[in-house]
Amino acid sequence: MPIVTKDLSWLTAQPVAHRGYHDMNKTVWENTLPAFKRAVEAGFAIECDLQYTADSVPVVFHDDDMQRLCGIKGDIRAKTAGELGLIAIGGTADKVPTLGALLRLVKGRVPIVLELKGRKGDDEGFADAVLETLDGYTGPIALMSFDHWLLKDLKALEPSYPVGLTADGAKPDTFVVHEEAMQLGLDFVSYFYGHLPNSFITKVRAQGVPVITWTVRDEAAIEQTFAHADQMTFEGFDPRERIIA
Predict the structure, then answer these.
(1) Pick from 76, 167, 212, 229: CA 20 to 30 A from residue 193's CA?
(2) What pTM, to 2 d.p., does this model score?
(3) Burial 182-208 (b: 16+ CB within 10 A, else e)
(4) Residues 35 and 21: beta-carbon distance below 8 Å
(5) φ and ψ at 88, to 5 degrees?
(6) Are residues 180 and 152 in contact, defined by beta-carbon separation less than 8 angstroms?
(7) How far apart are CA 218 and CA 237, in angstroms?
(8) What domains lie within the chain, and their CATH numbers?
(9) pLDDT tens-place string over residues 28-81
(10) Phi, psi (5° rounding) for residue 117?
(11) Torsional class of 67: left (φ above 0), alpha (ψ -120 to 50), beta (otherwise)
């Protein structure tokens, strides 16, 4: 497994707001421009999810189906970016944003961690479209995915951005699969805090690979994170209200 030598200290320098700094979808909804604006104003890094539209545009949205977030049934990937730009999230005035809209809002002021949500057999051009959208953006960006085929696609394109594995699991056979992914030359790992500590994470950290956790919502998860990883992806509270010992 390659040892990371590039400086990724910015990736772990501040807490990472899960799907933006939302308020658990009360008034500020996940993966919306207000949630990202709120994160920038608080000085938090931003984690968000990317889906791939019917017209090959990366948009910021987590679910495959639109029911939970938009109140309508339907496959997010069956819609064009233009159509999604007219669909309200959570009954608010906010619509499904494109990756380009996110970049224009953030303007390099805080790091962005982009998780590509794959669908095997339906991702042709996804990695290319993401990197094309990022072309010319000068702020700190990291790319990650659970999906090994998307990680392969990203690495094949030789991006200038760090690429990481999103993962979970507490069993040795799972670690074998994770280690296979790391052989792609990945730069960091985002891991479920509830499955720490484990031998896979101990090994990658010993080799200089930064590890962030997901998704931290309480004090116990904070303590678990900082005992076994480098930074947290959080939601539902303000990390500025506590001091990590």
Answers:
(1) 76
(2) 0.96
(3) bebebbbbbbebebbebebbeebbeee
(4) yes
(5) -75, 145
(6) no
(7) 8
(8) 9-241 (3.20.20.190)
(9) 999 999 999 999 999 999 999 999 999 999 999 999 999 999 999 999 999 999
(10) -95, 105
(11) alpha
